[in-house]
Amino acid sequence: MTQTPVPETPPSPQQADTTMAMVVYGLYLAGMVIGFTPLVGVIIAYVYRGKGPDWLEAHYRYQIRTFWIGLLYGLVAMLLTLVVIGVPLLIALAVWMIIRCVKGFKGLQEQRPPTNITTWLV
């Protein structure tokens, strides 16, 4: 008796490789310790934008917005450290970044887009 090989089933159209999106979120979190990693993360997000299903595209857009909004908040907080209020703002920025990254990780695991992509808050 000969056995016929079972063909491998191709991945469904909704399945996508979320590895690079997870790497970007990880680089953003590492940026709290190593300053240049968010820059690497946003470059990766720009490169991989347009190469996946809609829900994954939403993550890349969310990551790009997180970088630019975080940079703006960071610059304002750094300027305000001259009048002492910047220190609590930098702490708030770190909390904001952690929340956005955790929210993104959770969305990737559930294969759904993050909520409120266009918001400036969480």
UniProtKB/TrEMBL annotation:
It is found in: Membrane. It is a multi-pass membrane protein. It comes from the Bacteria. Keywords: Membrane, Transmembrane, Transmembrane helix. The chain crosses the membrane at residues 20-48, 69-99. InterPro entries: MamF_MmsF. It holds the Pfam family MamF_MmsF. This is Uncharacterized membrane protein.
